[in-house]
Structure formats: C-alpha cells, structure tokens
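DATA CLASS: polypeptide
GOAL: derive structure tokens

***
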Amino acid sequence: MISQKPINVRLNVFEGPMDLLLHLIKKDNLDVADVNVSEITKQYLEYLNVMKELNLEIAGEFLVMASTLMQIKVKSLLPSQVPTGENDGPDPAQELIAKLVEYQKYKEAGKFLDAKLEENKDNFYKSAPIFDNGEKVLNLQLFDLLSAVKRAFDRLDERKRIELLKIEEFPIETKMEKVVDMLRRRPWVLLDDVFTGETKKRGVITCFMAVLELMKIKKLLARQDERDGQIRIYLNPDTKDKDFRELMHGDAA
C-alpha cells in the first residue's frame, strides 16, 4: 500500500537566504552592486515556491528576506515624493547590498580555506582515483539542486501542470529504479536528464526525492562540472552491485 502522505525533505546542510540571493546573482553573472531588486525579488519568490512544492522546511529567515525584498520593490515602484529629509533613515536597498557584499567576502574566504584543505588532505594514500578537470568534486549547494528541479517545472506543459482531477501515484521506489537503470547503461547522467519524460510536478518531485534517497544510502555520487555548474550523478563504485532496496533497509553491510 503506497502512502499518500506528503513527502518531506530534510537536508543536513541548508543554506540561508543570503546564499540564495548570491546564487541568483551569480547565475545571472551580475555584480552584487548592480542588483535589480525587482528582478531578484521575482526569482527569489520563484525559488521559495519550488521549496514549498518539495515540502522543504523553509526557515523563518527566508520569509523575512522575502518581506524585505518586497518592501524594497514596492518602495522603488512608488512615485517620487518631495525631496527627502535627513531623518528618513537608511536606504533598505543599499543596506541589503552592503550586507551581501560583506557576506560574499566571508563566503569567498571560506571557499579559499576549503580549497586549501582539499589541496592538502590525504597526501599519503595509494591507488587514489584520478579525475580529469571535468570531474572534480565540488561542494554542491542546495540551490544548485533546486535549479534543476525548477528547470524541470518550467519545462512542464502548463495544461498538465494544473491538471488536478486525475490523481496519479508516483512510488519513490519506481523512480529510484528509473535512476539506477539509467546509470546501468551509462557511466553518468546529468541531474536534469533524470526528469526527462516527467509530465507532472509530482513526478518531478518524486524523481528528486529518489535521487536524494539514493545519495543518502550511498548508492549514488554527485559531482559538479566546474565549467558550467552542471550536476552529474554516478553509481557509487562501492555499492553499484548492491540492490538499493537492501541498502535502504540496512541489509547490506
């Protein structure tokens, strides 16, 4: 009997709203100082909707940031008033940009330290796997994963997207089998390709859950191509011959 309960996603590492804003700015190749608040607000709210569709537990700080962005956007759309006085207070848009610039500095410093750690760790081991430049393992961010889901949502036929009368079941194990079967025929696939053939939002969501579950039980590995940010998934060499159902139930040690 397939459970009809909504699927909830819990991730160990959950970036905050500043990370999402920087992700959106970087995605559009913008400079932090040149942010179009109106456009960034639209994209920010679209990502929040994707997170809601996935039943992600959205921290209150995401909603606070959404409120701040909306206030800034509304203020920018209001007709100009009489010249402002000195007591009008700080400009919230400039305050936000200043915080983003400062946050970006800390993020870049953190990445530099992580790179040094990666460069100097495990210097004394045998039979180390050698990856080419296109297979370097990068730290995947939640928003990189959500971007693939958002692209899959955007590709859905609008008529099918709002089709509510026909209830379809999407067992997660079926989608897990789909992903594993794809990787039996190829050494790796793009995360975006996992959603190929899905015509319903719930199908896309279940595919995403399937990938997360396969990564959790160490059946899959994910790598990000540093050239264009594409995420590729692989069968884990240590577990590729083990059935994912056994790994799920802990029967394979």
